[in-house]
User: Fold this.
Amino acid sequence: MDTELDLTREGLEAENYAEDANKGTRFLNYIIDVVFFYIASLLVGLAIGAVVLMINPSSALFDEYDTPGENLIFQLISLVVYILYYTFFEYFNNGKTIAKIITKTRVVHEDASKSLDISTILGRSAARIVPFEAFSFLGSGDRGWHDRWSKTRVVKDR
Assistant:
């Protein structure tokens, strides 16, 4: 089965009526993606550590980082990995992260006549780091701020 979005007239009409994923599925997507984000972060951290040790074997990189500057660097790297995790998978995998593959859901543009482009996905991914964004699902509706701000929605895959 082809996983590309069908942008023919029939595909547009069908996409307009695609059923939104419910809050339970969205929460499961979040939990699964957080696990895979931590795995990706671990791999990035190991790669950075290996490169630093190859360049400078006596590096103190692995000492406890308790200075504000070192902590800030690790936090920024973590944010970049977080944004890249979602951007990479949703852009190069037709709107699907690992969790969305498992739960058979996908991200689509709320205007079905538009396809997902890199700026939409990057904006959606960056919006996730806004403080309290995860709580934006507690209100009515099944869309969080990152959905509304990027004009996207998560639907059940056909």
